[in-house]
Amino acid sequence: MLSSTVFIRPTTSQDQGAWNHYVCNHPGGTAYQLSGFIRAVEAAYRLKSICFVAQSRQQNQGRVQGILPLIHLHAPFTKGALVSLPYCDAGGVLADSPETEAALLAHAMAYAAQKKIPEVAIRSVKPFAGLDPNLTRHSGKVRMVRALPDDPNCLLGSLKSKVRSQVKKPMRDGLKFHMGGRRLLPL
After folding, report:
1. pLDDT digits (tens, 9 = 90+) for 1-39
2. Who's near 91: CB < 8 A, 6+ residues apart?
3. Which residue ranges make up each domain of the chain?
4. Model pTM greater than 0.70?
5. Which residue, 115, 110, 108, is CA-closest to 91?
6. What residues have CB less than 8 Å from 66, skipping those under 6 apart?
7. CA-wise closest residue to 105 among 77, 66, 79, 139
8. Largest alpha-carbon pair distance within the chain?
9. What's the CA gap between 59 and 56, in Å, rounded?
10. Under CATH, which number does the domain 6-122 receive?
11. ∠ CA 97-70-34 to the nearest 5 degrees?
């Protein structure tokens, strides 16, 4: 799809590096939007993805300006829905501008209409700047976020005794946690 400033197209396997670089460097990027998560969902649930990338048409030819990962979910006896992204509460479109975001959303809607897929669901933790007011917006998912104190003992003390006991059980059983990088992996 062409817009005045960006060209939107489906991704190919050659786009994975640029896609992941964009997600990792975008302030709203999540691990769910990385190509590896999308491939894992495809493999684990035998689903098909369609991912769109918006690229610059003028200066910096080909520079990624936005992405939209979608998974085609099928319910029995229906045409299903395009979801960004299933099995998580965050995902959706990443874009450098509200115009690119709107172009990606419009492209997803046009693709769904062409394929006769009746629903497009975008799960995002932020509101869309370019959202068409004629689109239905509902939030059937719940996301719970809790601010964490600096002191882990303060958090533990805020839990009810039964939950505290469940948290401490792995420690009593000898479970240990180490944080680190590749040096901790048995290679």
Report:
1. 555 678 999 999 999 999 999 999 999 999 999 999 999
2. 30, 32, 33, 69, 84, 85, 122, 123, 124
3. 6-122, 146-178
4. yes
5. 108
6. 6, 53, 54, 93, 94, 95, 96, 97, 100, 101, 103, 104
7. 66
8. 62
9. 7
10. 3.40.630.30
11. 75
